[in-house]
Amino acid sequence: MLAVAARTSRWRLIANALLLLVLTAVLIAGHLLHWDDQLRLYWREQSVDAMQRTASIWLPDYELALETTLAGLEEDETSGLTWNPLSGTLWTVTGQNPQLIEFTPGGVVLRRIRLTGFSDPEAVEALDDGRLVIVDERRRLVAVLNPEPELESIELDDLAIHDLGFPDAGNKGFEGLAWDPLGQRLLLAKERDPLGLFALPFPGEDGAVGALEALPNQPLLVRDLSSLAIDPRSGHMLMLSDESRLLVELDLQGEPRSFISLFGGLNGLVQGIDQAEGVAMDGEGNIYVVGEPNRFFVFSRRSEVAR
């Protein structure tokens, strides 16, 4: 009886040890895959009623429609993305070799503009009049330019610039940028330390840039901020997180409304998006994402993808 009890005790210890190992592995996997972020967002998403969904972007309805690469940018590291409705084209910036790149919604590169004097351009955004605003993360500034058709290069010193502050931010400064046409202001995302959203009135009543101000927001439920975009139809914001591998919709009150995961095997993605760095949205509701070094993705509503 004692031998049987001893064997039973040993097997119980082994079973408990295996269970502990499994639970540890699940917790580690959950941390690495950011399941905690997704579970919190999923819980918020379940409280959205049918009327709110209709008035939303509603990301669960989206699926990958195109995945390709931006030719010739393999060594340049694309970062940031914007849609210009006046030209019907997209713009991105590159950090390794500072450039401003224009390309089609199908991923065909149309032209490059050299950015001389820039240190680390991380975001670009089109204004209502077609001008472009670029964020230089290391220099902690925004610069404004007019991308005229014949323009091949531009000097930072020749542009109107605005200091964004945070002198100790280093390489954890502003990465996201979006234009809010209703508020006539730029919305900026600070990557981390502290993570947050800010507004920059642009221009003010006298034509000058206003003062940068932190936006009061609900907890953003992501680990970093890579890029922002505004839906021109609903006014809702798209918030891209590289580390959490998530694209999140925020409503007009700044609360999470819906999300999609950027891991492989979901929403039409095969390999997933490892380093998502820029998001943009056009007037038709198509969502565009760039990832380092030069990957390009288009997401459309499932009804549109099926056509």
Molecular structure report:
This protein is an alpha+beta fold and 307 residues long. It has one domain: Neuraminidase (6 Propeller). The protein contains four helices and 21 strands. The strands form five sheets. The chain has a five-stranded mixed sheet, with no helix packed on it. The longest helix is centred in the N-terminal third of the chain and has 31 residues, at 2-32. It starts with a helix and ends with a helix.
Question: What is the average of the pLDDT values?
Answer: 85
* Main structural class: alpha+beta
Secondary-structure arrangement, i.e. CATH architecture: 6 Propeller
How many separate domains make up the residues? 1
User: What is the tally of helical segments?
Assistant: 4
Helix content: 10-25%
Distance between the termini: 71 Å
Radius of gyration: 22 Å
Poorly predicted runs are 22-33
CATH topology: Neuraminidase
Q: Which of globular, elongated, flat, extended, rod-shaped describes the shape?
A: globular
Instruction: Tell me the β content.
Output: 35-45%
